[in-house]
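Figure S7 source data.
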Amino acid sequence: MSTNPTPQGSRPAYERPVIVRHQAGLMNKYSRTRSARPQTEIDGVSIDELVETYGSPLFVFSERTLRASYRDLHSAMSRYWPKVRLSWSYKTNYLDAVCRIFHDEGAWAEVVSGFEYEKARHLGNPGSRIHFNGPHKPRPDLERALCEGALVHLDNFDELALAERIATDRGIRPGVAIRINLAAEGTPQWSRFGFNLESGQARDAARRVLSGGKLDLIGLHCHIGTFVLEPAAYRDAGRKLAALANELRADHGVQLDFIDLGGGFASHNTLKAQYLPGEQATPSFSRYAEAISDGLAAIEGPQPTLVLETGRALVDDAGFLVSTVQANKRLPDGRRGLVLDAGVNLLFTSFWYRHDVVPAQAFHGLPEPTVMYGPLCMNIDVVRDTMLFPPMDPGDRLVFRNVGAYNVTQWMQFITYRPPVVLVGENGKHALMRRGENLQSILEHEEVPAWLA
Ligand SMILES: Cc1ncc(COP(=O)(O)O)c(C=O)c1O
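Tokens for the predicted pyridoxal-5'-phosphate complex:
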């Protein structure tokens, strides 16, 4: 049992007795399992103050980390390739304030739906600074994007033909890119998006664009996957796109404006299947940059702009979820269960990450195997599988770290309201980026048929 520092003269705090079964996994060759250290503030703003102001649960983002990540990535890439463009992947987090920060840093927009396109336009991006991906671009969305000069990445032959019809009908000659899927070393192939390289389909699509005479081929795009921990995969993808670019240049005189290697860099999160924690396993931006430039080095002629649509690696580490313990319980197998006010409805990514979670206040007592449940009356609502965690009382708070990517876009309004999202500014101030929901926000979208009224 540990002893706690107590003010001189006062009685030591009571520590409830805990029996912790000897467990394999407490130690490994990298030493003892990391013991939790409390996180009491975010960029100098106390978590108590944030919760007192906005309530719990609460998503909090650090402006400092958002900007620093963008600058790190841009400078790492620019050291290896002369022309670099980062296009902010809207689906990763499309809160206006987050997008504004990245656009302010110089990012273009990367969108995958008519809704995201509208959001990018609403934030002041001209079509010519928007890369438009995705397998579903209905005619009105495609037409608007082509007419506004957006960089459309064609996904399939039907879409290619539709783009040609729009070009004819509207009397325009847009520049387009083709999305390509390929086998890249060390990562499973995502073959459902774009045209396949190995089967020759990507070449056919490029030739089809060129022979149609209605569209200009200005780019090649490829997004090999997400949370790709192996930089060599990008070397491989770069090499294959460079070979195709050279072939198109030699055979058809095509000079590409850009090669877009999509997103996929890992954040400092930890996948469930991962052995080492993210902070040790995640490659630096420089390692990805080196692999990409090595892969693209074979390109002949003027170098195209390298476009990246990095999402999670820019925003994940800037996001925190503060949650409050509602209750303790003991499971039949001896583990402790914690009931929290935030569940998988808010933390969708808990299905595949072992999120880093720490207490938000000083604690005492021995850590014991603990599983964390959310508030949903659903068996799947587990936000953190068994981990060693110190004793918590109802009202104590926890901080989930590296949760800025995909959660505030994929969260669900299910059983409870979605909570507010707050930004801690570089100036030390904090403010709402999204209000919490209430009954009114839900009812706004509901109608009661007249005969039931
Ligand atoms: C086309 C495209 N670009 C970029 C991204 C962002 O990927 P990530 O968040 O892994 O960087 C995605 C995500 O799936 C995507 O589909």
